[in-house]
Amino acid sequence: MAEAGDGGGLPALPHSRESSNSAGAHQDGGINGRHAVKGKPGVRAKFLTTPKKSANGLPMLASAQGSSPKAAAKKQAGGAGNGHLQPTRLSLADQEVLKDARRKLRALGSGKHGKQQEAQVSQSAPSSNRMLFRVPSRTLSRVSSKSFIFAQEEGEEELKIGNELEEESLPPQLAEPTESELLNVAAKMGMCRTEEAPDMTAHARAPKIKKSSASLTSPSPLGVQFKVFESLLETVKDSAITTNAVVQSLIIPKTARHRSRYIDLLPEKFVDNPTIYVIHTWSCSFVETLTAVQEYVLNLRTNVDDVFVWMDVLCVNQHLDRSPGELPLIREILQGSERVVMLLDRHGAIFSRSWCLWEAMQAQTALGAWDKLVIIAMSWSWDDLLHTFQILDVSRAVTTKEKEATWLLTDLQRNSTVDVRSLNATLKDGMMTGAKREMNRSEKLASINSKRFIVASTAYGFMLFLACRYGEAETIIRQVLRVIDRAPSKEISDKEQAVTIYHLASILKEQGRLPDAERALQDFVNQFRGLQDELYMEGVAYLVEVLYLRKMFTKAEMLTHKTLEDKYKQYGKNHPFVARSLLQLSQISLSQKLYDECEGHAKDVIERLGHYPNGFKTQEMASAYQTLAICTFQGNRTAETKVLCEKALQLCQSNFGVDHPLSMDARALQAEIMIREKRFTEAEDVLQGPLPQ
Question: In terms of CB atoms within 10 Å, which of 282, 533, 578, 673 comes out highest?
């Protein structure tokens, strides 16, 4: 068959500067490369630049200067001389070719030559800068087509989409058939499924499930577009508002009229099959939750229009109770998502929530599950999650309604061949593996997307830290620091570098390498003194803690008094950050047996937190009661000690669990009181297990 530029062909089509400059740029399979496609042998399609249509929708052709085949080939390879030829009116030869093509196409459409007859055009249509590759004639349904000219040559079919030319270039007498008629004929030939050919460059997505096919009472099988998340961030700006509060004050009122899901209020263009499934807790800040998802999506550097997120607050009907009948649908949605993002909140509440653990288990049991689960730490403070991860137990996990926890656990046991203890180990291993796989994926692109690699590696280091594999965690975090040093300064902020140093200090402290931890934190304080935000305050408080553990009480006390002034100015006198510094002062005094001074600081903490919203639910409040109880115990004020110890125990067990270190300390003090009163049997019972609720 005659190729473009071979003997016997017609003059080449003129082409624009843009198409000329791209000629020969992708000979290895790009724009002008040749690609074999599985299908009917000998079938090829030639795609030129997007054609301009005349008034009747047909492509317009023009002759190029110089009709020599060699000249045409030379122009195609070398950019056609000056790279731009002005379109000209059709030559008589071109008009005859076009007439013949249309006449034979009409004959083919009317069936004159039978079903097996293919359209015939002269040996070679006008050539231009174009992409050539083989396709079967019945697999062109995704070809973006404006008009078709069909030809057969030695058993081969060619589809040519012509260059854009001036509308006046097409003679009026060639106005028939119209483009719609051409597409009708193409559909009859099996070259496209419908009269309107879909866009070839469109993102290939799974077929949409129509809204009407899903009951409003069941979870929606669709997710919301990422843009919806951004709009919600603009609506809810207070980071102190929890997800539960947003559901009660925003989601439920907006959907109250039809008692529907939030997703049902959105236009259809904003919903599609979910690509990301989010596992989160309702007790966490709604703004922080959305921000964590937003940062993850942006770090992927993908087209956000193609990202659809499934989140229960938006896709589940909040007017109805959950039921075990929806578990199969949730499992199908979750396993059909490309990624399952698990957001670890600051205090590790996610490790004690039945729904979150059930969803994480479904992600691990799905096909290709080890690549699905992505771990994201929402806080830089790792120590607060260390205990909750260690005591993770699906049998003790809770939900807002107790019956939900029962049938979620039943479903886990029904679909598993191992006992509960093994389920716990499987969950932990799965989270570890998911974090590692995400790090491995991002490592391949670390040179061009260092931000994503840093976030993914930090998450894996975090999981190693929670598993008490401190040596491996240190290796990962030091690698992150090296990447930060090499990364462009515009990609990595000072805060991100500060967080990494903070994490390194946490690892060194848990390893018992207190001098190394002190040096790391001292570098942190000196380097990021100008931040003056929550992270910096936490870093200074952490340095005070390390100094306290090293029994450097004077240095620790001086640093605490210095930071208290900054905290007063920035947060006010009743903020938990202020209470934490006062609590550290009381513990420093207690270690030096300055009980009166210690008692004064502890009472100050209780008074300040009493004026703070939910202040009684903080660890600082429980620690203050515990410290005050120790002071009264040392002063032989046993009656006061019993009352204070009981308050501390109730706060710890109700807010942090019976196995929390603070709860254990309170029980130990309670046992000491019983021993002083020679109630040895009761003291032994207290030390052997948690007290009844």
Answer: 578
